[in-house]
Amino acid sequence: MNELVEKAATALGQAESVAIACHVNPDADALGATLGLSNFLRARGARTICSFPNEPFEPPRWLAVLPGADALVRPAEFPIEPALMVTCDVASMDRLGMLARSAARAQTLIWIDHHVSNEGLGTIPLIDPRASSTCEIVWRLVREIGGDVPVETATCLYAGIVTDTGRFQYEAVTPETLRLAAQLREYAFDHTRLVQALYEDNPAAYLRLLGTALDRITVEGDLIWTYLTQADLAAAGVHAAETDDLIDVVRTAREADVAAVLKQQRDGRFKVSVRSKGGHDVATVASTFGGGGHRLAAGYTSKHGLAETIHRLKAALRGEPAVEG
User: pTM score, two decimals?
Assistant: First the structure.
């Protein structure tokens, strides 16, 4: 890992232009790593262009508190054959969507990620499943490159670390993670405003929708689950991205080890978010269905209807062989 960090630092330290991409439906770790690195390279005089593969291109509301968002462009405007490309928090090539073509054609591809399911993509794979977040790995990289770290980078990296650790509650938090958070907190950014934007900025409509999802709670053995449809979202006037924290409410139930939230996407498929308190490796379960993640937090997209998706999830949690189709 140290040799790869040095190799990536050399490539980025010499680059005049860098294309940076993160995964579809990006969270604060993905965008924090992307913009944190972008801000650092810009401060050194490099040009950066950043994107994520959502169409329509609708950045999350909390992005307003992350500096450097002007570097973001729609995926159609992203370079098709970049000389140097970096991916942040991307567990697999399909998570890049339409930007995968750029990754395939990049002369040098630095792949920064911390998902245990990552197979080691890129010409320079910086993949550390022990890291609390992709932002933690980006911090190692910018320190290896050297020079001053601007407050804009510190802000973005702190946002990614605080969210991907569940506000420092999750298993991946180490003493090093806390020391890094303390270092970043030394920078003069508005910590309170940042955390409020990330955690305390829900519309009342979301709270009503939360009531709908909680009313549908079902406990079956070691699994507690609920769901939301496109019709639910439309009726409430709530965007799917605004419901990302729902899984953190469902997972608090003491009756089950595994929590799952199924959210119907525009194409009709269900995005499945799964969390475990420790009794199950949900990354292995998610990989069964083409997804991935971490041992206690993972996800995938199901091509089946609600009932069949739950049936297959329960079978996978029991360790039964995956059913074809």
Answer: 0.88
